[in-house]
Amino acid sequence: MPYEVQTSVFEGPFDLLLHLILREQVDLYEVSLARIVDAYLIEIERMEVLDLEITTEFLLIAATLVELKCKRLLPEDLDIDIDDEFALWEERDLLIARLLDCKTFKDAAQVIGLLFDSASLSTPRTAGLEEQFMEIAPDLLEGIDLEDIKKAFIRATTPKPKPVVSIEHIHSIRVSVTDAVEELIDELPRVGTVSFRRLTDSLVERLEIVVRFLAVLELFKQGFIELDQPTAFGDIQIIWIGSPALGVADLSDIDTYEG
Amino acid sequence: MSAESRRALEAIIMVTDSPLEAEVLAQLTEQSIAEVESQLAELAAEYADQERGFQLAHVAGGWRFQSHPAMAPYVERFVLEGQSAKLSAAALETLAIVAYKQPLSRAQIAAIRGVSVDSVVRTLEQRGYIGEVARDPGPGQAVLFGTTPLFLERLGINSVSDLPSVAEFVPGADVVEALEHGLRVDALAVPAPDASGSTDERPTLDDLLDGDPSA
Amino acid sequence: MSAESRRALEAIIMVTDSPLEAEVLAQLTEQSIAEVESQLAELAAEYADQERGFQLAHVAGGWRFQSHPAMAPYVERFVLEGQSAKLSAAALETLAIVAYKQPLSRAQIAAIRGVSVDSVVRTLEQRGYIGEVARDPGPGQAVLFGTTPLFLERLGINSVSDLPSVAEFVPGADVVEALEHGLRVDALAVPAPDASGSTDERPTLDDLLDGDPSA
């Protein structure tokens, strides 16, 4: 499947969720949360100015999804805190409301697209004044100053955004957690022990460092590595304890082995 | 004098290069706006009756001559350029949000779409479909966006109130149900039919993160 | 088919901004020139009979719609009252490009603006703000435009070197290319530098969506 074609189909986590639940009719249990979290991270990275409000909302939604999934996967806890339970329902409903809102405008967008299409069948007349009236026409430059001319020039020659957005996605996907896990599984067996600072000193983007940290946590959960942090806020030592024979291709086998 | 003023309206609209408001036409022909509007409606009906190749259209708050949609195949052969490229789905969605919820900020649009909208907002601004209409009075004074007359013109409508009511697009009960099922909280609920097989195994941590226990 | 082609003629002539030759119209409507000419004469007579405020006139070797001379007082009033005196954003941008980058051809202006600029260039020329200043020495000898003394006068400057500096501003690559080649740039035809090669080892979107436990 050509990469670009697929990426352009989904724009962000809401789109992904709507598609998975409504079209594919899959259940949250089957949805890959890491991928949705990745989708959020990509969106946050795409923001030109880091907007705290949006970032917080994105994280809140991602957290709600994780909580819902935990709740569904873990064995029933007998002493459930009723307040926590209600809070989760509330967050879930909020998420559904957001998805519905998003869906509403997706459908409205289609109608607007149709209106554009049907209106484009008519071409407006823009011929303007006939020559004989030109002479009496007032000066068109009335009220226009040098600054307006400069601004108009800059507006006209500013680089136009590329019509295809999918390339940005391709670029952003470099920072997926899965990629980072695969890189680490490839690298850690060779070095044995390494500090987190060392592991990330070649990375420039903060997001890449965050993603690598998430990958380290993931490997810790999977039992591939030991973590050691001798002093608070000190550097973290990462010690590879997984089977050195395991390669990237074997990552998926771990699941069945554990299960 | 009505015949004379109808002729005058035809002449004036013929030489404008953008939709002309009934108010201006009323001043120029020394009539009330209501009179002008009824004459314009008459003219538009006449052209339709006579099956003219052009229409008198009421768009973006004004009146203009335009080619009849049925003649598009002929006009397209002639007008090759200038037709702007189609908008992406993302741009249309953003435009729909701005059209129905204006004025609103970039952050509000992003919250609804669940994605960063910086570049798509810029594209729509460059196309001239949306623009800054106000500033948020709150801290930060965020730019509030709204649709422009050009947007109405390109859509062939007179004002945003001509858009279908947003209520028409509110998802039905089936969608709500599907979302509630897909995101249900209760662990004991019956799993979706196609999730069979994998549910009786004890979930691993990887399931939690990845949902992909056996792939 | 004559009714259809008459409609087509009306539509095409309505949306063009300079007189169209019968020959072009014949091609567009797939008829003989004689047929086109007789239909045009019929239409012109119809408008006269119906005392329309516009005419179908044969000027400068072509056909166009224009306001009826009897309605000139209304059109003049419209012009004098300044209702027509808005320099559109498109016209202002075109004027600015000519001012800063002169001399340049119509094709170069069109390549920068990404749309056909014929009517805008004509308006600016008619208004006396821009004019032919040279001919491209290359094949085709395209007209090269520049601003006029009237333009300088209206802006209150002595020469174009008095325009505010845009030195610190870097124009888009498409603009630079348009100025270098004078050719129309198709943004889609230019491959994005980072779109190739590097994607192979990246996960596919299938991975992104992969949540199916039974896959």
From TrEMBL, chain A:
InterPro entries, per the entry: ScpA, ScpA-like_C
Stored Pfam families: SMC_ScpA
Name of this chain's protein: Unannotated protein
TrEMBL record, chains B, C:
Biological-process GO terms, alphabetical: cell division; chromosome separation
Keywords, in A-Z order: Cell cycle, Cell division, Chromosome partition, Coiled coil, Cytoplasm
InterPro entries xrefs: ScpB_csome_segregation, WH-like_DNA-bd_sf, WH_DNA-bd_sf
Cell division as UniProt keyword: yes
Pfam families in the record: SMC_ScpB (PF04079)
SUPFAM superfamilies: Winged helix' DNA-binding domain (SSF46785)
The protein's name: Unannotated protein
